[in-house]
Amino acid sequence: MNFSDQVLAVNDDLPIRTHQAVHSGKVRAVYYLTEEDSQRLIKEKRYNTAADAPLAIMIISDRISAFDCIWKGECGLKGVLGKGVVLNTISNHWFKLFRKKGLADSHVLDVPHPFIWIVQKTKPVKIEAVCRQYITGSLWRTYAQGKREFCGITLPEGLMQNKLLPNLLITPSTKGILNDIPDIPEINDINITRKNIEDNFLAFNFSSTNDIILYENYLRKGFNVISNALADIGQILVDTKFEFGYVTDIVGQEKLIYMDEVGTPDSSRIWDTAKYQAGEIIENSKEDFRQFLLNYFLDPDILLNKERMPEREILAQENELPVEVLMAISKTYINIAERIIGHTIHLSNNPRQEIITTLRDKYDLIDG
What we know:
Elements: H1 3-6, E1 23-24, E2 28-32, H2 35-45, E3 55-60, E4 64-66, E5 69-73, H3 83-100, E6 108-113, E7 116-120, E8 123-124, E9 127-135, H4 137-144, E10 149-150, E11 153-154, E12 163-174, H5 194-199, H6 210-232, E13 235-248, E14 254-259, E15 268-272, H7 273-277, H8 287-296, H9 301-304, H10 309-318, E16 320-321, H11 323-341, H12 351-361
Helix pairs in contact: 3-11
């Protein structure tokens, strides 16, 4: 079996029993379970959630997204070998560590297989927040152009590229298109300020203004937990993205939880400490792939300029990237995952069939 057979590129056509349309994102597909199956699994598996909580199956893929596009390789390679397993495995590792440290829970109730999460449906907070410890990437480009205010926070003069920021910088942005909020354009991924959030907390799906403080606490402490753990293995957490939502627990209490993925090579920049101290940036994250794309195409502005999105989509659709590039990304992802979790990542020869078998034999969720 070749690498293209081991890569799970399509994850929204599995015969999982559902009563709604499958939601297919850039990387994950979500299958919402029937009320009957949700309640059965909660009872059988004793999940820590309300007895009537809606559940869903999340199936991760090996697709790789960058600059809001999905990219593919030559020889039928439509993703990165091992990427899905790496993202789930690393996220699971941090979720467990957060709980151990007394932070918030996550939306993940069960991990039947490396490609599968069983999750409880959340009320998502409509914000993506990036916590930044170093000034690099788009933040540096904008700073170098003279801008000093970011999400209502003013940065001092004299900062240098790829160097530590004076303090951890939290830059929230909108998740999805939000309507009728003063001073916020109806466009996805628009930077916002803390005052925007406070003044419109209900529109962002916060249950109370007190939860904004809790949210910020989870952001900072979650970042520090990951940063300290990475430092122990010779890695620097440069920046990372967090998302949150609300669920109801087994006693009917609403709680704010981490959701989506955390601390992965997809949602973070991770640098090798020794190389950084020697003056070299070695990316152990998707940023390495992004830099490849910027250097590979003759007009990198297509990838950076949101107004050229139609051209960018054509670029991704019409270009097959060298196999060795996607395999190099695979190696980067697997290596950093194994360092984080402390043991070998095992890859499946037939992930699709394993997913179906697991959900049929152990969870009775496969029709046919």
